[in-house]
Write a structure and sequence with these properties.
five-stranded mixed β-sheet; 358 residues
């Protein structure tokens, strides 16, 4: 092993180390839409990549598998494992999620509604897994605060589609607690303190380059990279969703363009309806939205009812419904094609492992 490689190995061995006892839990759970998802919870240690690869294969081979979704809740851990996991996720076209907990005061109207729902529908508990009941005058328990800090953020950026949300009370923008926390990577203090200033500078320069190169590879913005490396390792820069959402693309452009090339794109009729029919279809939809707009935050069922049932005076309902069927059919075929293309890629990977012998 040459000197350069030895130094890199040494860097990784001491990278973002801490007194961690247990490695991350990487399990398959039922997601809020009923399909299986991957959940990573806890500190990330060396060896977790192999565990992650095994569970990823199990997820893709699950009989109810539809999408490769992974939900992250971790304070971080080993950067090498985090980047290896991230690169695997990117190669598998996975979607990453960091979802904060949603709080309900049990005495509030919405809190009572949620309690009734859980009591009447225990089989649908998976739909409410991020909901928690906490009175307004109580301190939020630590276990009710979702977090993705440090190297967990590296994994988040690997997703080809990404979603994040803060912790907070339902419909209360003033009560938010960030889920995202960043700071610069660091070495084990025992190792790093024994280096000379020149050795420390050279080692950190390599570390900084490795992490920055990874983030650029994953499409992270310069803004988040700058913020990360300005924050000392003994501090955490907490980013509210409204601030963080401008630091990442929700969808990776390369995948979107690949799927457009393979399957076309969903439309409101452009490209296959006549110009006149396409404009008419959009006009009716705009009028429906205007009629229902005032209900969007108050009564979901009534909003949907207006969207479905309202037609401007003098409009041709039969023509609109015929155009709607054409648009729905086109968009359904596009979605089916894109889902098939992604799943085929994922299945090829999962089937590439040698079969176990009895």
């Amino acid at each position: 092993m040459n000197r350069k490689l030895k130094l890199l190995v040494a860097i990784f061995l001491y990278l973002w180390a801490s007194s961690i006892v247990h490695s991350a839990d990487i399990v398959i759970e039922r997601g809020r839409f009923g399909t299986p998802v991957l959940v990573l919870n806890g500190e990330i240690l060396k060896g977790d990549f192999e565990k992650f690869k095994r569970v990823s294969r199990e997820l893709i081979q699950h009989r109810d598998f539809e999408y490769f979704d992974i939900y992250l809740e971790s304070l971080g851990g080993d950067v090498l494992e985090s980047m290896r996991i991230g690169r695997l996720l990117r190669s598998l076209l996975a979607r990453t999620h960091v979802i904060g907990y949603r709080y309900f005061d049990p005495k509030s109207v919405h809190g009572k509604e949620q309690k009734r729902f859980k009591k009447k529908n225990p089989e649908k508990a998976y739909q409410k897994k991020h909901d928690r009941f906490v009175s307004r005058n109580e301190r939020i328990p630590d276990e009710f605060i979702g977090r993705c800090y440090s190297s967990c953020v590296l994994i988040f950026y690997s997703g080809v589609r990404r979603d994040s949300s803060d912790n907070g009370y339902f419909r209360d923008s003033g009560s938010k607690t960030p889920v995202i926390g960043i700071h610069r990577p660091y070495f084990n203090k025992e190792y790093y303190s024994k280096l000379s200033p020149v050795e420390a500078k050279n080692a950190y320069k390599k570390l900084e380059g490795l992490v920055k190169d990874y983030l650029v590879e994953m499409g992270a913005s310069n803004l988040v990279i700058e913020r990360m490396f300005k924050t000392a390792s003994n501090d955490v820069d907490l980013l509210l969703h409204d601030e963080f959402k401008v630091m990442y693309e929700r969808k990776e452009p390369f995948l979107e363009e690949w799927l457009i090339a393979k399957c076309g794109s969903t439309t409101s009729g452009e490209g296959f309806l006549t110009k006149e029919n396409s404009e008419y279809y959009r006009y009716i939809n705009d009028e429906k939205f205007k009629a229902a707009r005032h209900l969007i935050d108050n009564d979901t069922n009534e909003y949907i009812g207006v969207i479905d049932g309202y037609f401007p005076e003098g409009s041709d309902k039969k023509l609109y419904e015929a155009l709607s069927r054409s648009v729905r059919s086109h968009n359904f075929n596009v979605h089916a094609c894109t889902n098939s293309a992604v799943m085929t890629h994922q299945k090829l990977w999962s089937n590439s492992f040698p079969s176990k012998r009895n």
